[in-house]
């Protein structure tokens, strides 16, 4: 049995996106990385990863990618990533793997490692610990989430294992909607959880338990062994870094 895959390829800024302008393309997902569009690189990696099945791409401009989508189905993206995932899940169902079009360095072994550790949960998130990133990509500047027991950066790999994962996406939608209203976000997460986070006393187990309390879904953070998995192409410096790392692979 193969696992369906959702690729998020949306961009709020469209042609005005800094990376789209840099690459002189109509959409960020089409930005060339060492001569190949980012989305094409991701689709090629998914195609050679054992156990993966039909691919669905979510993008607000479907006509822009038909030439490279191949056999993938294309859905029109919603106004935010969380809403796009929610709408796609009603179409794809669970379980499924979710990744992004700007994951230009994506490797089959990262996916295999990640999926091999997704047992006993409803939703899993791939992460790279700060020490791992600094070991494998010493010159990068990543954004880290700091908990009392770990600091990590996301790897744009998500496993939606059961229908309960949809409740986590709904929570994500609420938080994203209120991102400019901190007090409302605090009410949603709980003031106790927020206070522990601000004081540096919130650990990963407590965070996952709080999400389970709010959604009923068991959530796991899964550290990957390669720090390069945390590198996506989100700004011009990331493009330079990704091309350097790909050149190293080739050599």
UniProtKB/TrEMBL annotation:
Gene3D superfamilies: Spore Coat Polysaccharide Biosynthesis Protein SpsA, Chain A. Keywords: Magnesium. Pfam families: NTP_transf_3 (PF12804). Residues 23-127 form the MobA-like NTP transferase domain. The keyword Cytoplasm does not apply. This is MobA-like NTP transferase domain-containing protein. It comes from Gluconobacter frateurii NRIC 0228.
